[in-house]
């Protein structure tokens, strides 16, 4: 596109040197923008994975699956509690269920199955610097990298024990009953910079985690999460997706 604009402004016959120079600068600028975008993306990935190492694999895959240029920024919803978008994640056909719920924005997760069998089902913006993630870790009892996928009630304990300073748990583990099923919830902070609440649920032998991360007013973020969970519906493998 940039090259076409240059040719429109400077026809080759009339200004060959100007055209060559303009094309050189245009190409150089494009390469520099790409390199800058890659650097910023990798810096963001390193920051998030330092704060939440348990989810580092999914974070890297989701971030690197997005194009660097030409992709519109996620729209920040005016109301984190809005129910304007129905999110539908279809079953993969390998036995794991899909899911659907109503939320304030679009699902921006690529939905690719990773080599270890986990998948980032949902990535959604709830508010400024507040995000919702839904991850299917795989079958309970299998291994995710070097870590066994324990049942939900034990996964929260393992997750809390794996925290390293400046990460620290906040409050006790709590049981959460919702339309998603019986869940077990844990919250941690990363040196006070951000707060993450994960809700672990098992469904038909598959391990799921629904997490919400925010940098301010985390109580409101958890409230928005619970409102979303109240609209949750499982889509069983083989069930038609409406």
Describe the model.
Mean pLDDT is 80; it is low at 1-24 and 66-71. Helix 1 (2-9) packs antiparallel against helix 2 and helix 2 runs antiparallel to helix 3 (56-65). The chain has 242 residues and is of the alpha+beta class. The chain is globular. It has helices spanning 2-9, 16-51, 56-65, 152-161, 218-229; strands spanning 85-89, 98-103, 119-127, 130-139, 143-144, 147-148, 167-178, 181-190, 195-203, 206-214, 233-235. It is built from five helices and eleven strands; from the N terminus they run H-H-H-E-E-E-E-E-E-H-E-E-E-E-H-E. The longest helix has 36 residues, at 16-51. The chain is 31% helix and 32% strand. It has a six-stranded antiparallel beta sheet, sandwiched between helices.
Task: Quickly list its features.
single chain; 242 residues; alpha+beta; six-stranded antiparallel beta sheet; three-stranded antiparallel beta sheet; disordered N terminus
């Amino acid at each position: 596109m940039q090259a076409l604009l240059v040719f429109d402004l400077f026809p080759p016959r009339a200004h060959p040197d100007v055209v060559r120079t303009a094309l050189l600068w245009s190409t150089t600028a494009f390469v520099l923008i790409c390199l800058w975008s890659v650097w910023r993306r990798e810096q963001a990935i390193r920051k998030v994975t330092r704060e939440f190492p348990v989810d580092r694999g999914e974070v890297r895959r989701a971030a690197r699956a997005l194009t660097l240029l030409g992709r519109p920024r996620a729209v920040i919803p005016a109301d984190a509690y809005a129910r304007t978008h129905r999110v539908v994640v279809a079953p993969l056909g390998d036995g794991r269920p899909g899911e659907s719920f109503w939320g304030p924005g679009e699902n921006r997760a690529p939905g690719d199955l990773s080599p270890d069998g986990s998948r980032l089902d949902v990535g959604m913006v709830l508010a400024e610097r507040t995000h919702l993630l839904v991850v299917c870790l795989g079958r309970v009892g299998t291994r995710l990298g070097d870590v066994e996928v324990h049942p939900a009630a034990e996964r929260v304990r393992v997750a809390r024990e794996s925290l390293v300073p400046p990460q620290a748990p906040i409050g006790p583990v709590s049981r959460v009953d919702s339309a998603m099923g019986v869940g077990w919830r844990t919250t941690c902070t990363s040196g006070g910079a951000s707060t993450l609440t994960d809700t672990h649920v098992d469904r038909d032998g598959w391990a799921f985690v629904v997490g919400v991360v925010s940098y301010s007013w985390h109580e409101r973020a958890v409230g928005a999460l619970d409102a979303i969970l109240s609209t949750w519906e499982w889509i069983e493998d083989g069930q038609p997706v409406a």
